[in-house]
Amino acid sequence: MTGNTGRLDWVDAARGFGIVLVVFGHVWRGIWQAGILDDPVLFAGIDAAIYLFHMPLFFLVSGMFFEKSVLRDGATASTLRRFETLLHPLVLWSWILAAFLLVAGSFTTRGAISPMDALLFPSHPRTFSGSCGPCL
Questions:
Q1: Has residue 118 got a pLDDT over 70?
Q2: Where do the DSSP E strands lie in the chain?
Q3: Taking the mean position of all CA atoms in its chain, how far away is CA 70?
Q4: What is the DSSP-derived secondary structure letter of residue 40?
Q5: pLDDT tens track for 14-71
Q6: DSSP, residue by residue, 91-113
Q7: Selection from 60, 58, 32 nearest residue 46 by Cα
C-alpha cells in the first residue's frame, strides 16, 4: 500500500502498464497505417499480443473492485456512476479528436471530416479509412 491512501501499489502499476500498452498499440497501428513499417508478420504478432492482453488486464483490475462498489452504493447507483464517469471523457475526447481531424483535413490517415461529422463524432463508431492489412 501507498501511505495511508488505501491504494494498492501493484494495482496502480498494472493500470499504468495497461495505459502504456494502449498508447503503444495506437502508435504501432499508426506506424503501420503510415507505411513506416512494412513487415506484416512483425506487425500482426505485436498487434495481436498487445490487443489480446491490455483489455483483459483492465477488466481484471476493475472487476476486482466492482463488488465493493456495488456493496457500498448498490447495483443501480454503482452502475450509473460508472456510466457517468466513462461517458463524459468519451464524449469530450471524441469531440477533441474530431476538432483536430476537422482542422487537419486530409493530412491525417483517417481523412477529412465534415463539421456535421465532427458534431456527431461521439455517436457512431469509426473504422480505419486506410488499409490496415493484418489488423482487420
A1: yes
A2: none
A3: 25
A4: H
A5: 999 999 999 999 999 999 999 999 999 999 999 999 989 888 898 888 888 888 889 9
A6: HHHHHHHHHHHHHHGGGSSS---
A7: 32
CA–CA dist 18, 61 (Å, integer): 10
Do 43 and 75 meet the contact criterion of CB atoms below 8 Å apart? no
Torsion of CA 30, 32, 34, 37, to 10 degrees: 130
Cα-based angle 132, 27, 108 (whole degrees, multiple of 5): 65
On the CB side of 5, how many CA atoms lie within 13 Å of its CA? Answer: 7
Q: How many C-beta neighbours within 10 Å does residue 32 have?
A: 26
Reading the block at residue 105, the C-alpha cell is 483535413
> How far is residue 12 from each of residues 9, 62, 83, measured CA to CA in Å?
5, 11, 21
Write down the residue that cell numbers 471523457 correspond to. 89
